[in-house]
Design a protein that fits this description.
Elements: E1 7-12, H1 16-31, E2 35-36, E3 45-50, H2 55-74, E4 79-84, H3 85-90, H4 92-97, E5 103-105, H5 113-121, E6 129-131, E7 152-156, E8 158-159, H6 170-174, E9 178-179, H7 182-194, E10 199-203, H8 217-225, E11 232-236, H9 245-253, E12 260-262, H10 270-275, H11 282-295, E13 300-307, H12 314-327, E14 331-336, H13 354-377, E15 383-391, E16 399-404, E17 409-413, E18 422-431, E19 434-439
Parallel strand pairs: 1-2, 1-3, 3-4, 4-5, 5-6, 7-10, 10-11, 12-13, 13-14, 17-19
Antiparallel strand pairs: 8-9, 15-16, 15-18, 16-17, 18-19
Helix pairs in contact: 8-9, 9-11, 12-13
């Protein structure tokens, strides 16, 4: 009898780096002869790529693992692996607490996946494995991710983080910062162009501190922008202490570098920024925003904010509100502070109740939503070029979505599926956080 092809299913939580890592793992599994399953029921291997940045993200995964119990009862040969940040934070504890889990692999250990699977299929009865070790040299150089779309690719340019913001667990889970050589990144993007990709997003926990022996991040961006065939270049995430005017100039000088800047401020209060160990001031941040707005054509500015950090007074919070109102971001991701064991801030005494944190979160979101709407309305009547990503999330029939250069989502009706193509749309309305458009006539 012909041997049945094994099928895998990967569920991914957390940041873009995690989504990229899942594609890397899919590439490893592809080489082993695995195929992607259409559904959980249909799979021989389920991988959950996890995030530990907030307790809420971990809780979702823990609940999910319990739900897999049923699948395992139906299919006792099913293997379940936990990847990513929770693998490092919880390690063997996951095996002990969740009997459905067969193995745990940390972000630097994905090369070992074929070995672990071989051991498990050899039926080693004790066969539950945990491999969650740092390898501060691992950059997965020659592995080629199996990417989810054929038009927009994530490319990791560095891994790890050296910043130690006091609230953040990432440096403890992803190890020290290391960059891939620019030559190698450029070669990967050339290959992507050959395969038909139009857009790349360069990823790192702090891309502004990218460097190889000869190039900093602005150099790298300029090199990528010169490559024929690439139409759009994005990057994430930036740190205000390292974002250089040279990079802002590179964004302004190269039309293919999107006018999209995600620059997490975290707080508008100097007291809180100091406690967060962010190493910049509110005034430095505002200067960067001014520089971006004066040099780049109408940039899309996005930020992350934590409310309810230990010690955040009403005045500190108002300073954040004031900064948000001054900057008028295009979008802000606002989070409630979540204490992470092992970080410096875990020792700080919290002064707010859960309700007070929720109230600050809701208040700030309300203010930002009004600003987002105002910024979006300024685009009504304009023509924007979008890269069509496919059906819109809550799609009605014939409804599709794409993104502008500045990373705003535009929903439009169309009889044709232009997925993966750049199209011009006229913006006709702004509602909530979304723009609505019409495909411009006569444009192919
Ligand atoms: N609590 C709440 N939000 C956090 N972030 C990072 N660590 C925490 C934490 N302990 C947020 C930051 C970061 C984003 C990815 O997650 O705003 O920019
Ligand atoms: Fe979450 Fe951070 Fe890990 Fe990304 S690096 S998955 S945001 S903890």
């Amino acid at each position: 009898m012909e041997k049945k092809t094994k099928k895998y299913y990967i569920e991914t939580y957390g940041c873009q780096m995690n989504k990229y890592d899942s594609e890397l793992v899919a590439g490893i599994l592809g080489k082993q002869g695995f195929e992607e399953a259409n559904s959980l029921d249909d799979s021989d291997l389920i991988l959950v790529n996890t995030c530990s940045v907030r307790q809420h993200a971990e809780n979702r995964v823990l609940g999910r693992l319990d739900a897999f119990q049923q699948l395992k009862q139906k299919n006792p040969d099913l293997k379940i692996g936990v990847l990513g940040c929770m693998a490092i934070r919880l390690q063997d504890q996951l095996l002990r607490q969740k009997s459905v889990v067969n193995f745990v692999l940390g972000p630097d250990n994905y090369r070992s996946l074929p070995d672990v699977l071989a051991k498990l299929s050899n039926g080693e009865r004790q066969s539950r494995f945990s491999l969650a070790e740092f390898n501060n040299h691992e950059i997965y150089s020659e592995l080629y991710p199996n990417r989810a779309t054929g038009f927009s690719a994530w490319v990791a340019i560095m891994r790890g983080c050296n910043n130690f913001c006091s609230y953040c667990i990432v440096p403890y889970l992803r190890g020290r910062e290391r960059s891939r050589p620019a030559k190698e990144i450029v070669a990967e993007i050339e290959k992507l162009v050959d395969e038909g990709f139009l857009e790349v997003t360069l990823l790192g926990q702090n891309v502004n501190s990218y460097h190889d022996e000869n190039h900093d991040f602005a150099d790298l961006i300029a090199m990528v922008a010169e490559l024929p065939g690439i139409e759009r270049i994005r990057f994430a995430t930036s740190h205000p202490k390292d974002l250089s005017l040279k990079l802002i100039d590179a964004m302004a000088d190269h039309p293919k570098v999107c006018n999209h800047l995600h620059l997490p401020v975290q707080s508008g209060s100097d007291n809180i920024l100091r406690l967060m160990n962010r190493n910049y001031t509110r005034s430095h941040y505002l200067k960067l925003i001014d520089a971006a707005r004066s040099r780049i054509n109408n940039p899309g500015l996005y930020t992350d904010i934590i409310v309810g950090f230990p010690g955040e007074t009403e005045q500190d919070f108002q300073d954040t509100v004031d900064l948000v109102q001054r900057v008028e971001f295009d979008g802000a991701f606002v989070f409630k502070y979540s204490p992470r064991e092992g970080t410096a801030a875990y020792q700080y005494k919290e002064n707010l109740t859960e309700q007070e944190k929720v109230a600050r979160l809701q208040y700030l979101n309300q203010i930002q939503d009004a600003i987002t709407l105002k910024r979006n309305r300024e685009l009504v009547g304009q023509t924007q070029k979008i890269l069509v990503e496919g059906r819109s999330r809550k799609a009605k029939p014939n409804q599709y979505m794409g993104r502008t250069d500045s990373n705003k989502i535009v929903v439009f009706n169309s009889d044709n599926n232009y997925k993966g193509l750049l199209k011009e749309v006229q913006i006709i309305a702004a509602e909530g956080r979304t723009l609505f458009g019409e495909i411009s006539q006569g444009v192919r």
